[in-house]
């Protein structure tokens, strides 16, 4: 049996063929379209699936998408970090291929993939957190995948980390973990961080000239020993992530937290040291073990396919609802 996993990120859409035992057979990667209507993202996905399969021989399609989601409608009603803010997913794809489609948040899919095939196999209290363009999570408590009323029970990126912060998140709120620590927002946050400070630093000189400094450049400067980058990452950014992780541990009491996303995976030793340094000051429970996903970028594809390979009980209602809504029989 062969399944399709679709990983809808803020920057890229990844589509792959996955075997029933969790092996990624083939995959394609496409940039998110910069403009279009509510069907544009689905059309990109449909083309990618057709390129991989010729349109046949599929047993099911799993989609892990950036959120927030509206699972009942099978759509993303407002994606803060994506070029197209509102887009359909389930309806166009299920009509095109006429196979079961399962939709979940991208990090929700990832935690299910880790639970079935990865480092979280057999762990009944597990959280997957992606630290990338945005910050999101998938949560399993007592073997049950958390969903919520609309499919957003895991939007931990919008946890408030700093009530005094005037940095606005893409969702409109203030002081959120994603606003203060995500890859998309670090260029804004470091500009605020340097106000009233002075450093012997090339990065500092560029910022005082109002030059744009990317997240990648901040991390590169850190490894080059830049004084500002060292202070910002060691004494601010790592505290933000430690506070966020501690809040997750306090809320869900997991045995294991698996970290993914490009920002974490490209800086694993740095994140491990930095989080360890500050974590205990924010904890109220026994700390969870923290590991990094072993699937790399494939975790999105694998996790999405995992939703279709073994549909979580908490998503079955929505899968049946999609059938009835579209009046299809398989």
Automatic annotation (TrEMBL):
GO molecular function: N-acylmannosamine kinase activity; UDP-N-acetylglucosamine 2-epimerase activity
InterPro entries associated with the record: ATPase_NBD, ROK
SUPFAM superfamilies for the chain: Actin-like ATPase domain
One family name in Pfam for this protein: ROK
Name of this protein: ROK family protein
